[in-house]
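Annotators were shown the component list below and the corresponding predicted structure, then asked to write short factual statements about the assembly.
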Amino acid sequence: MTSSENPKNPHHFNVFAAACPSRKLLNDVTRRWSILVLASLLDGSLRFGQIRERVDGISDRMLSATLGALAEDRLIAKDDAAGTYSLTEPGRQIARQSLELFDSLYLALDEIVDARQAGDDVAGSSAGVAGVAAPGGAAVSDGAVS
Amino acid sequence: MTSSENPKNPHHFNVFAAACPSRKLLNDVTRRWSILVLASLLDGSLRFGQIRERVDGISDRMLSATLGALAEDRLIAKDDAAGTYSLTEPGRQIARQSLELFDSLYLALDEIVDARQAGDDVAGSSAGVAGVAAPGGAAVSDGAVS
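Structure shown to annotators:
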């Protein structure tokens, strides 16, 4: 593939290649918590405690490590004076795509739940996320952070 | 948030909530290798060895475990007669969004490399992926799988 064939990817990055720097970036972005921390900053700068509040379940230690790794990858920046973290422009692009990925997860769960309810039970009734999501859509109404 | 506010998410899934089934699905999808295996199947059904070839660096053991987890989540299905794996419709949606995420990684790397070359070196010259990607776009031309 050449630059002219894919104007979005002029540097020939290929995440399927183990040695490509985009593979490391993918691993960093999809490391447990990273993608949620990135997405939490889409609405604007947040302080450490505000991010911890948005990303339910993250520990101080994990949040600190995650922020450090994302800053090293230049996807977020810290404003030391204000004590806040914000997305860089590259980080914002990735965070936006992460939200789209989340939407596809929600749609997938809807379809998986619907398939279960229709009796399409080929993969086993308690397997994977389908078991967690059942019955219907009621499973998360209490636990959800709004 | 109500269903009427977000028609894409009628079941009130919220990946930021630790107890939401979408959080488990996110963790499954972004587990090391899963997202690459999903994306590798976008062009059509593949045999085990073909997936291993596309996803550079994955071991037989990891590929086997990844395929099992994705099948449990009903994102892929195995055709036992043909010996091939293919995406389910929910899996296809997630795989498509994964490709978009990869594109945002490529763009981010371009911007990070450009910023380095422009002398914008606030985060340290060898930090994170920026150090790996430099110099210019030449870093992956040999290692890339086409």
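Statements collected:
1. The first strand of chain B starts at residue 46 and ends at 47.
2. The first helix of chain B runs from residue 21 to 30.
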